[in-house]
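Service request form, structural biology core

Requester: graduate student, group of Dr. S.
Request type: structure prediction, single chain
Budget code: on file
Notes: please return the result as structure tokens.

Sequence provided:
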Amino acid sequence: VWIAFFQLSVTFITQWPLQLENFSSAKRAKILDKYGDIRTVMAFQVLSMWQSLDEHQVKFVPLLIGPFVSMTLVPQSDLRKATLPIFFDMMEAEMNAHGSFKQVEDALFNHLDEQVSGGHGDEEYKELLSKVLIEKCQGHPSLNDNGILFVESLTGLLERLLHYRAVGHGEGNRFKRTVCTVNLLNFYREIGRPQMYIRYIDKLCELHLEAGSFAEAGFTVLLHADMLEWRDTALGPQGRHPAERERQRKERLLKEAISHFDKGKVWEQGIRLCKQLAEQYETELFDYRQLSQTLQTQAVFYDQITSGGRAEPIYCAVGFFGLGWPPFLKNKRYIFRGLELERLSAFNERLLSQCPQAQLMTSLNPPGDDILQSDGQHLQVCSVSPVPEVPEVFQRKNATEQITQYYKFNEVKTFTFSRPFHRGKKDKELEFKVNMMAVSLLL
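Core staff response, request fulfilled:
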């Protein structure tokens, strides 16, 4: 009965006809003048009934967290201020009963991620949630430290989710969406949320596949595969992954990565994974049919390497300068790898198509405050050269060019670049000419 009451109340509060923000200002004012905001009235009823549960509140954790998240996300300040403390009550109730509030943590991360990325929530919600819950945790005997750290993590998550949502979908926003996805993926890894981490691994892989970046998609799949062991532990369904044994999921992911590496012509990585699978088929599973197929795939990859036919990609250091960029790009640099056979002119054109409001800088010198503190968006694109790290074994054995070529443009950690150097007085006009000459040569 209690659960039915709370669920029905939240359904009433969140129903579309009561969302006054969707109406014109005149209609909204008329409704408020005649009826008031009955969402707030019902929210206070929910709060009153919740408080009457007293020591029985823990029985409704985590079942009611999802509905209550939906309620607190309604864009009404008084409603939010009244209902957000319920999450502290849940934390306190679970802490008193079990010595931790892990269920509350897991449920809040999951439901906020799902609903905020789906279009709910705003900056006000982020600030209010942080303020309300930190004030509640401060000075609390058991939640002063862990509680505040948790709320800070929630605030960090909301900030990243709002950036992620603001970017939008579509080909023109793919790069920005990729950066936001990587930020969320790294965030979940740092705070130890493997299920959410895997969710964004899958999203990042989809973005790479849409862009035709098959090598990157392969490496992304490996982030998940490397978390798994060759064990028979039963795994439940998760996202696109069905219920299966841990061994089966790892095998399936490795095969996916091999397929992506083949399309991306990164056969060296494919060979490495084929060897892992071959060992399992030969020494653990005794599946000689799969072993034969894997060794045949591996042999094809060796043939592809020795036959050559791979284009040398370009690498560019791209700086995003100015206050007009979103926070995850503002005054930062990234190394980009061009598409196959892509030249610098085509790379610049593709980049500008995804950043239509940006201006391409003509100088390769570090930007000054006039650029860094400007309200606009400035792009600085500089061609960089990879510093190869050819494995010592290939150097000792005088391996052929077809074998060592891969390491000249892949598995690279260091890049070099050059820009104009002036002796004596700096000549702005000469600098511009030199820079444009460098660009024209690269074209």
